[in-house]
Amino acid sequence: MPDDYPSLVAEARGDERTLVEVERSGAHAVVTMDEPERLNPLSAPLTVQLRQHLTELAADEELRAIVLTGRDPAFSAGGDLTLMRDGAGPMLGGPNGTPELWRWIRLEFGGIARLITRTDKTFIAAVNGAAAGVGLAFALACDLILVSERARLVPAFSKIGLLPEVGTSWLLTRRLGYQRTYELFAAGRHVSGEEAAELGLANALVDHDLLLDEARAWCERVEAMPAHVGRMMKPLLRHAADVTWEQAIAMEELAEPHSFTTQTHVDAVAELLGG
Q1: Checking CA distances to 54, which of 21, 106, 143, 251 falls within 20 to 30 Å?
Q2: What's the rounded Cα separation, in Å, for the pair 139 and 123?
Q3: Which residue has the higher pLDDT, 275 or 229?
């Protein structure tokens, strides 16, 4: 296995298998992690393909929403254990040491999580089965999370001697509080789709066979909004939880006048006033 980050990425790009499927329809796309026989683990090739596809979709001006899911029976088993064994070791023992593994974690795993949170596209996670480790981190980073009754959220880090990563400590403590998040990480227990919805980790529990239909329905809701609303609302709401009330209201006061300048707003007001 390669002993540095660039070589690992180059080797992953040389893998000719299609491990990520992209289906476009109008202003949305469905991105499917696709190695079901291994529960869609985040191997080097799958991760590199996923980041490449998401980067391209995020740059597409015509696109409004992106659904992220996995091929049944899983969403993603998380970090590939084979990569942990055969990839991390050579990098840690290579001439550049720990920083090479840091580059992989930050630029690939972290790069995907940052893209999900920073792009103005709406990301919808359709969690159809196990979402473990980094796979769970990607789901939690999305703007909306739909789970089926077959979903299992698995914060599996401690069982393999690792710590929370790729933003899960931040995301879960803000949803669940410190003690309950500590419980999940320390016990490494599975959270069912039903419990995830009850705890507020998911927006809705959806019948498994209807999961993608519901995700696409959400895409249609996003597409029905004026384009500038989706683009401006996401960063506004993303930052609101981490600033003071005064800072949040100031951001809103700065953003709102821009909306008044759009033809969409002018036409909507005229229609409501009867022309």
Answers
A1: 251
A2: 9
A3: 229
pLDDT digits (tens, 9 = 90+) for 132-191: 999 999 999 999 999 999 999 998 767 777 778 899 999 999 999 999 999 998 888 899
Could you give the CA distance from residue 155 to residue 267 in angstroms, rounded to a whole number? 48
* Domains (range + CATH), the chain: 5-224 (3.90.226.10), 227-272 (no CATH)
DSSP 4: S
Confidence (pLDDT) at 206 = 98
∠ CA 192-194-200, nearest 5°, is 100
Per DSSP, the three-state class of 139 is helix
Omega into 99 within 30° of 0, i.e. cis? no
Give phi and psi for 214, each to the nearest 5. -70, -40
Question: Taking Cα atoms as reference points, which of 30, 8, 148 lies closest to residue 80?
Answer: 8
Q: Are 53 and 18 a contacting pair, CB within 8 Å?
A: no
Task: Quote the DSSP letter at residue 209.
Answer: G
Task: State the sign of the Cα–Cα–Cα–Cα dihedral 169, 170, 174, 177.
Answer: positive
Give the whole-angstrom CA distance, residue 28 versus residue 201: 24
| Prediction pTM value | 0.91
User: Cα–Cα distance between 188 and 211 in angstroms, integer?
Assistant: 26
